[in-house]
Amino acid sequence: MKFDMGSTALSNLTSQTSGSSTDLGLLIRQLIAAAEPLEGRFNGAGKAAFDMFKANADDITAALNGSLQQILGGQSGMDTAFGSGDQESADNARTTMAAANFDSARFSGR
């Protein structure tokens, strides 16, 4: 099995995830606004659940955004690790090639 990932894959993913963080808070606020016309129609447990969701919307948004920030931190760490691993691999290859005796591999007759 071969694992091949472009050098910009993780940075692109981090950028897209970062944009999702702002979208998430906006979507939660839009959900609350869209449900406003239904607010007086709930009774019992449904009303209590909706009221609790509405009252905790900022906390819910903060918790979800906090989780996304942790994901972003992980993506950033992976990007750093892959980048330094790629550089270390290239450095090791150059060091090994510099120490190799390529003249001994020539098969031409003199």
Account of the protein in words:
With 110 residues, the protein is mostly helical. The chain has one domain (20-98). It contains three helices and no strands. It has helices spanning 9-35, 44-55, 57-99. Helix 1 runs antiparallel to helix 3 (57-99). The protein is rod-shaped and about 90 Å long.
Provide a quick synopsis of the model.
This protein has 110 residues and is mainly α. It has one domain (20-98). It has three helices and no strands.
Q: Please provide the ordered H/E string of secondary-structure elements.
A: HHH
Residue stretches low in confidence (pLDDT < 50, at least 5 long) are: none
Q: What composes the largest sheet?
A: none
- Given helix and strand content, the structural type is mainly alpha
C-alpha end-to-end distance: 43 Å
Mean pLDDT across all amino acids = 81
Helix content: over 70%
Percent of residues in β-strands = under 5%
Q: Tell me the total number of β-strands.
A: 0
Computed over alpha carbons, the radius of gyration is: 27 Å
Number of domains: 1
Total count of helical runs of at least 4 residues: 3
Globular, elongated, flat, extended or rod-shaped: what is the shape?
rod-shaped
Secondary structure layout:
Layout: H1 9-35, H2 44-55, H3 57-99
Task: From the structure above, extract its key features.
75% helix, 110 residues, 3 helices, mainly alpha, rod-shaped
